[in-house]
């Protein structure tokens, strides 16, 4: 909204109005406003959640300090979502289709997570929203993203970036070239399934990571900052040419979204770091995971997610391995066995007696390292 206003003022030679033409300025402003909203306005939201007695219900799993979290306000994902959406509406070009896709992603998964938290808190159902409805919601979003990109690309090739290779561009159509006249449509169908898989996997991975104070928000912040940088260089033809990466016209606008995303997660840590004053709940965790997935897909960097979002992936894999091995051994030996003391992985370390704060700090450091490796892939080929 402010972009359109200042574009008009620039047209009538209003002093200083031209600064809004710079993506870097608007990204910086988005990050600042996002930080303010998540820290200062978030404080009021937490107070409201306390008055409404929207507290976390805790099952006793024998983890150190677990029961002390009982009653801590949850559904704090509302703070993150607000701190993303408001700055984006203020500073981004709302006519940009990529911005619209990201706003739809944020609100769509925010609503899905809110429904889950609402059932847990107000309906007193610990299971929350049934798993199949979560999957339907995530699949639905994946379809929307894939169809939107189909029309934006004019139905032509679907390119992505392969890290560490000189010839870094890969076309999904190559996988369906054998189909002749049907290669294009089959390529887009294949791409649709890939989008659904990534959105579902990363969103649920972030949801599983949200188990310790500050863990999900702290590991997401470097991811958000990295995505903002990748969007900016991909949408700037000078940087794209220098780095020899795929140039995507108009994608630089997502740097504003990425900056707001970064500010929202860092600001949320103000309240969510140990000991947490608020939990993000599924309202936040499903949303941040979905944002990471869709953002990476839009900027054609989804193959970097195993590195950039490696913590989400490992947390999800640890749960899948644990559940699969338990079921297998129970069927074969009549008694379920475990690979980890407890899953997801961060609970395994809790069971081993590692303090919660040390686990979180180490995961943060790993997350920062993975973000740096991701950025290094721009030149390491």
Describe, in plain words, how this protein is organized in 3D.
The chain is mainly alpha-helical and 381 residues long. The chain has one domain. Helices cover 66% and strands 2% of the residues. The chain contains 14 helices and 2 strands. A two-stranded antiparallel sheet has the order 1-2. It is globular. The two termini are 40 Å apart.
Quick structural summary:
The chain has 381 residues and is mostly helical. It is built from 14 helices and two strands.
Please describe the topology of this protein.
Elements: H1 2-11, H2 23-51, H3 77-91, H4 97-122, H5 131-152, E1 159-161, E2 169-171, H6 183-209, H7 215-235, H8 237-243, H9 254-272, H10 281-298, H11 305-308, H12 310-333, H13 345-351, H14 356-376
Antiparallel strand pairs: 1-2
Helix pairs in contact: 2-3, 2-9, 3-4, 3-9, 3-10, 4-5, 4-10, 5-6, 6-10, 6-12, 7-9, 7-10, 7-14
């Amino acid at each position: 909204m402010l972009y359109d206003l200042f574009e008009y003022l620039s047209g009538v030679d209003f002093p200083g109005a031209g600064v809004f033409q710079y993506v870097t300025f608007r990204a910086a402003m988005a990050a600042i406003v996002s930080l303010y909203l998540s820290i200062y306005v978030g404080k009021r939201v937490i107070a409201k959640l306390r008055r409404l007695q929207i507290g976390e219900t805790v099952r006793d799993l024998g983890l150190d300090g677990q029961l002390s979290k009982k009653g801590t306000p949850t559904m704090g994902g509302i703070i993150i979502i607000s701190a993303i959406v408001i700055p984006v509406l203020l500073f981004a070009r709302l006519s940009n289709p990529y911005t619209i896709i990201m706003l739809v992603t944020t609100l769509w998964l925010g609503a899905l997570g809110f429904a889950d938290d609402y059932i847990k808190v107000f309906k007193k159902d610990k299971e929350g929203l049934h798993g199949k409805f979560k999957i339907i919601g995530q699949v639905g979003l994946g379809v929307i993203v894939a169809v939107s990109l189909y029309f934006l690309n004019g139905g032509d090739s679907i390119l992505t970036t392969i890290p560490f290779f000189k010839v870094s561009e890969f076309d999904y159509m190559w996988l369906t070239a054998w189909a002749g006249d049907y290669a294009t449509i089959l390529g887009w169908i294949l791409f649709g399934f890939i989008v659904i898989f990534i959105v579902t996997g990363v969103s649920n991975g972030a949801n599983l990571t949200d188990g310790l104070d500050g863990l999900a928000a702290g590991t997401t912040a470097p991811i958000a900052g990295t995505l903002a940088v990748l969007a900016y260089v991909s949408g700037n033809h000078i940087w794209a040419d220098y780095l020899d990466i795929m140039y995507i016209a108009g994608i630089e606008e997502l740097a504003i979204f990425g900056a707001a995303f970064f500010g929202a997660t860092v600001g949320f840590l103000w309240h969510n770091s140990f000991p947490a004053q608020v939990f993000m709940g599924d309202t936040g965790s499903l949303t941040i995971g979905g944002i990471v997935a869709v953002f990476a897909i839009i900027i054609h960097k989804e193959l970097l997610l195993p590195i950039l979002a490696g913590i989400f992936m490992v947390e999800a894999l640890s749960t899948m391995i644990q559940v699969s091995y338990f079921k297998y051994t129970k069927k074969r030996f009549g008694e379920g066995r475990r690979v980890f003391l407890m899953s997801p992985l961060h609970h395994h370390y809790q069971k081993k007696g590692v303090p919660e704060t040390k686990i979180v700090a180490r995961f943060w450091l790993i997350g920062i390292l993975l973000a740096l490796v991701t950025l290094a892939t721009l030149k390491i080929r």
